[in-house]
Amino acid sequence: MARPRQALLSRQRIVDAAAALIDAEGLDALSTRRLAAELGVRGPSLYNHFRTKEEILDAVADSITAQVDTSFFGTHGWPDALRLWGHSYRAALAAHPHIVPFLAQGPGRRPAALAMADAVYGGLVTAGWPPARATHIGALMRYFVAGSALGSFARGFVEDPQLYATQYPHLTQAHRLPEHQTSVDEGAFALGLDALIDGLARIYDTLEQR
Question: Would residue 175 count as lying in a domain?
């Protein structure tokens, strides 16, 4: 049989398949054996591209982080840059909520994650934030965005009006929240982000007065 003109596997194909598996079934579903089966190859074939499952997870996480737009730093004032970056960051994570707990551990050695941290930190310091405060803001944003993307507040309520009507008199409309998931969850994030940035702006003003 003639050898195929193209290799059966590539790093990108492995990453895409792993991301799809995690999106569909969660982090626990990912194993090298399961991933190889999804790709129609033998398990050892994966090790030509990745040495461990952890390396595959790192690559998946970094491919998601690479979708986040950090170009606002240096082209916008820091409040607008932080707001626009925050929305881009949340959108990337919210599209892949099952991997958020892994992403929330920090950038590790992942190139896209380190590049994002560098852009945010550099943008804030250039804008006049002290290095320690710039670090705090980067950490604060990661906590806030990851928490927002991890799950849906609206989806946490069951669609059973009788449950609320008989036991929780202040939640008589809570059964309608799931049908408004996008507006509730995105609206809450936008409100929180605006409040966070407003608070930071007041702190920033005190820095300028010193």
Answer: yes
Do residue 50 and residue 74 come from a single domain? no
Q: What is the CATH number of the domain that holds 132?
A: 1.10.357.10
Contacts of 110 (CB under 8 A, 6+ apart): 58, 61, 62, 65
Residue 128: domain span: 69-208
Phi-psi region of 117 (alpha: psi -120 to 50; beta: other; left: phi over 0): alpha
- pLDDT reported for residue 7: 54
The string of DSSP letters for 142-207 reads HHHHHHHHH--SGGGS-S-HHHHHHH-GGGTTGGGGGGGHHHHHHHHHHHHHHHHHHHHHHHHHHH
Helices 78-94 & 111-126 angle (0-180, nearest 10): 160
Q: What is the pTM of this model?
A: 0.88
